[in-house]
Write a structure and sequence with these properties.
Length: 93
């Protein structure tokens, strides 16, 4: 978090607001931690970084990872609904 963002939060919520109050105010009804990104809002995706269109012997693989926004929680890290694996939803534990 940057200094100007903290200053904006103080201006919006007041200097006497605690971090807990601020978190509850921003989080609102999103109380369940996202099972896909584990609350970070990002997921790692594996991709082949070897440029397409270049000749290779077929054995060249340059796999790398990049973080993208979680599509389940839309980068928030928390959701309004509790998501469980299908087996638990169907009664299997």
């Amino acid at each position: 978090m940057k200094v100007h963002e903290v200053i904006e939060l103080v201006e919006d919520y007041g200097a006497n607001t605690t971090l807990g109050d601020l978190a509850r105010s921003i989080q609102k009804e999103k109380i369940y931690k996202c099972p896909k990104c584990h609350g970070t809002g990002k997921v790692s995706v594996r991709y082949n970084a070897y440029p397409s269109g270049l000749p290779d012997s077929g054995f060249v693989e340059d796999w790398k990872y990049k973080d993208i926004e979680c599509d389940l929680c839309h980068g928030e890290g928390y959701t309004e609904h509790e998501y469980k694996p299908r087996m638990i939803q169907d009664g299997w534990e």
